[in-house]
Amino acid sequence: MIETKNFQGPPNNISPPITAGAWSFGPVGGYFLTESLRLNPNGKVTGYDHPNERSWRIENYRLLILAEDGTITWRTVETFKDKDGLINVVLENPVSTQTRFILKQNTHQLAPLETPTTKPTDSAAQSPLSGISDAEFLFPSNLEVTPVRINKVLLVGSYLTALYHEQLHTLHPETDFDYIPYNFVSALPDTPPSPPSDYSFQYLQIPLCSVLSDRVIWGFRFNENGFARTILEDAYSVIDTMLASAMIYNEQHGMLTFVSNFIVPQISTASSLNERGGSNDLITLTQKLNDYLREKITTYKNSYLLNVDTITSTIGKRYILDDTIYFHSHGAVACQDWDDFGSIARNEPIPPLKTVYPVKKEAFLDAIFRQMVTAYRTIRQIDQVKAVVFSLDNTLWRGQLSENYRLGYQPWPRTDGWPLGLWGAIHSLRARGILVAICSKDDYDYVKSRWDDVVEPKLLSLDDFSSVKINRLPKTQNLAEICQEFNIEPKNMLFVDANPVEHAAVVSALPGIRVIGGNPYLTRRILLWSAETQIVHRVGKSGKQAQIIHEQARTEDKRSSMDGSEFLTPLNCEVSFINIKSTEQAEFERTLELTNESNQFNTSGQHWSFENIADFLKSGGKILTFMAKDNFTDYGLVGALYLKGTEIVQYVMTRHLPETGVEEFAIAEAVQFLRYIHQGETNITATIKETAHNTPCRDVYIRSGFQEAPSQNGIRRFILDSKDTPKFSLHIKKA
Fold first, then answer.
1. Predicted pLDDT at 409
2. Are 45 and 182 in the same domain?
């Protein structure tokens, strides 16, 4: 059913039947711009992408085609059938009535559309070259579990950002977008269009042409000695100044900010073949500017670079960038200007741009927004993967070890291609602080004896894994034990296995666990490119966690052979404390990371954003963090107590620390710290909000000598009387 002004009825009652199929569209007497334009019953124009033709309606029995802003671009002048019996609709522009376009019925519309009698098979329905979308390729969604809504985005930038603002409103109506033009060095308004707290993040795009200036258009000047160097040094200064102005909301309100880098021109601008890639080449200059911009962004808190140049390279700069038409530093998406659609007389009409330069604008915009969303997911640590567990056969290598790698039977399956790629991916995960393990239903001694035969070249060893479960037990049991060893929940574990039967069994036994591995050509990309396996900052923990797991195992082995005091006293456990007063402190990033990854030892279950913690500190809150070490290892920063007034608001601690009494020792230090601030004996309070996961910390205040008070609104309350001192283990020393 179609319902417009002065018309209501089914599509086949419209004369001409404009919703029946695709139409050719273009200037009268010129080339058709498209042969696939469709006027959909929902009022949208599809099959042809241009801001001047976005929707349609019938008013007073005339066809109207409307632009993105709702203004009328075209209206019907006349309708007729040509000599072939095809319907032609002549359209004029209301402002420039001499500019006329035509909608021409395609030949195939003369015959009624046939409905297939059989459903096409999957192989027939999908083009072998279709694959996955560019956005999904670059930013995989395979590990996403929790949906995230981006409520409002502040866009700050030039022509490219204006395109985002114009198009993303339509593509993502669930998100509100505010836009502040920023083309040159200038001050932003004192306040953004909406309250800063309303924005999920700010997206900043500094225009390359403003940074390089118009001087680069006079290409012959690059032959002058020192010209390129002057351009580069001036560009650095412009970046400094424009960032200082554009980051005002970040600095004043701690607003999460993403900064787009510059799109590198797609071909050399050097004056000679010999100079390509040299200091006079705009490609080289832009790459240096991107390096400088990245370094500069690291000096701001809660701000991160988004590599738009990578997006254009992956999709193909020939399908996006306008430097084949415009000057090299313009750095925008190619489009055909309105004046080139026939309004200006030419001896030879200009053909549609897409006939020579097809533009993948929708794919580009889709990837741009997807990049924003995945970066946001990483920063908020949504669905974070803390451990990846690998099976062996048909997962870490091709085929089965016992069947395909028998001694004396050659050739064995090749190891190049995806097996080598997966071995490298494992080391990349370790570098990010993600734990890796093996879970395989096989004989351990046999696998160990044959490992070097199969893993060739020897880029991976069993010692690279924090846990190795190779036995005849069910994989579900082994995975549950790995969760206990790593002190993580199944929802933070990813299992890689080629067997779909195992997938089903594991998911059923361990709700929340994620599984991949059916298609080995997808595995490496999912592991390394997904937002859920990225880390925000590489801090002391990254890459060290596996060592801590190993040392923890050694500690537990020694504990099992000794009684408590005999074990703890010679352990020489030392704890040092740092008071976090500002987000500028070096330990802040690790504190934020620890807080947001702690679920089991987390007295409130709360996770914090950078902005929330910044406000907490500004309003008088304090964060007392602590580091621990013993004879076995240096564990780094392992815990944090959030303090306000005389209350311990929240207490978080890693679960990778041996049970040595450190948690009570830290509470005792926090009590002493608060009583020192408040000058004397003071009642100290604390709270615990029980969650489904924080069982390990529910008695920590009782163990420290606090008394439990009546609960309020489901929150457990504890108090340490001003006359009381907290309990703690005497074998621990303060460093």
1. 84
2. no
